[in-house]
Design brief:
The chain has 132 residues and is mostly helical. It is 51% helix and 8% strand.
């Protein structure tokens, strides 16, 4: 690791602490930055850098949306999979992921079921909370 990478790691750690302090303060970003002599542009820049780093380190990758496809076995599309159970005919029930609960926050929608690991749900919700 060269000196630039070390310096960047130190800056990210410092800004991680600053961002945590802002969250704990309950103040808006603008008020917190003003009272601490910080630039809001810098705050949002490092917040974005830290989020990107967290996502990269977590092993998550961005996947392109999957177009609706017909399931050859049941004749149902992937859109049919997310319809409530009572609104589908028995031959339209997907044999893949079965949504049992939908969590909506902002523009995000998370479909989960009983087999979704609690740790994954917690991590995703934490990332979404930080994204707000």
């Amino acid at each position: 690791m060269d000196t630039n990478e070390v310096a960047q790691q130190i800056r990210l750690k410092e800004w991680s602490n600053i961002i945590q302090n802002r969250i704990q303060s309950g103040m808006s970003v603008q008020d917190f930055c003003k009272s601490n002599g910080l630039s809001t542009d810098s705050f949002y820049y490092y917040q974005r850098k830290l989020r990107t780093r967290i996502i990269e380190d977590s092993g998550f990758v961005e996947l392109p949306p999957v177009p609706a496809q017909t399931n050859a076995d049941s004749g149902s599309s992937t859109e049919e999979c997310n319809k409530p159970e009572g609104s589908k005919r028995p031959d339209q029930i997907c044999d893949r992921f079965r949504t049992e609960m939908i969590i909506r926050t902002g523009d995000a929608e998370i479909c989960i079921n009983r087999s979704t690991p609690k740790s994954l749900i917690s991590e995703v919700l934490e990332v979404l909370k930080d994204a707000e």
